[in-house]
Fold this protein.
Amino acid sequence: MRKICVISATRAEWYLLKNICKEIKADKDLTLQLIISGTHLSKEYGSTYKDVQKEFHIDKKVHILGKNNDSLGICKNISVAIAKFSQVLNELKPDIVVILGDRYEMLALATVCLILQIPIAHIYGGELSLGAIDDSIRHSITKMSSLHFVAANGYKKRVLQLGEEEKRVFFVGSLAGENIAKMKFLSKDELEKELGISFKRDIFLITYHPQTINSKDKEEFGIFLNELSKLRDSSLIFTKANADENGKFINESIEKFCKNNANAKLFDSLGALKYLSLMKISKAVLGNSSSGICESPFFKTPCINIGDRQRGRIRASNIIDCDIKNLNEALKRLDSSDFKENLKNFKNPFENKMASKMIKNVL
């Protein structure tokens, strides 16, 4: 039986990978190996590995996060990851390793696979996010990989431009789409009970990550919070920034903001069901997370994408791009008649409800 090793280091990855794991587990010709690492194992980020082990056997837990998430701390995390992943993969001896995305943990894993000559199946290559180092990491993993599963035809073209063989590149669409199609969402009343919140007139779902190549992160995030403080008649629902440089600063700033603004609340991790149920009923998604770009189109929920972090990604017409100083103008555009009309009929470039099955069949 072919051993397929899947790794997840964050809550965002896992909800995309879960259906692939189910497909692999159900196939009599495949054996699933599951490695959990990164923020999944951090109490600060909600110990989300517990959600994983409710449904799956975890073969290995690999602790790699240090106390600091500045540039030097991340370099140390990468070195620890290379040392630990090499030991784990040498024990598990998978036939192929599945890597999703572009985080630094995945760069460490891909490096180990390359040296140990374990083939890599890479999901979501060919994308651009020019405001983050993730962009360079993603292309580096592409060059180390043997199979490529991309979310849009434009991304397939870029993988081919990087020199990969066409027979190894597969357009599968968005993994989020099939999750959303199968999910039974919580109602507004159920969400209020689950989250301990009485929603105000408007709801904004907010995720803001460090830009990682922008030294103005701290200054710009301060301006962002100042603008949000003016939304007194709205419920502001934050999820934590990831464990990149300046991520700790952003999370501490949000905590302070929520203490001073009764209409704001921060969650370590909402989980896929609550997060997407909130996205469904929100007036808009705010911030610079890829989930705003890639998942909000399935709900026709507006997304105000701030800054350069996601610059270069393919977008649907529900996305409003703005810089931090023009947030107020972007918020006004949400209520414009032309934008509301546009939301009714735009085309979602990521639509596909069978991505996991397609990936499993190729594996």
